[in-house]
Specification:
mainly alpha; 2 helices; flat
């Protein structure tokens, strides 16, 4: 179970990433980049993202 500080840090990262997407000149490119990062993090924990992708 993550500590409170770890959970707060994760939420700050999520908020910062959403701000980056919102302010990006090329929103699609930034969104694709953020998705790539998220998938890599999930994969490092053994989570398969193909079942999470919208079709």
């Amino acid at each position: 179970m993550p500590s409170d500080k770890e959970m707060i840090n994760n939420l700050i990262d999520i908020y910062a990433n959403l701000q980056r997407i919102k302010k990006a000149e090329d929103v699609e490119k930034e969104l694709d980049y953020q998705l790539t990062l998220a998938k890599a993090r999930l994969k490092s924990f053994g989570i398969v993202t193909s079942e999470l992708d919208l079709k």
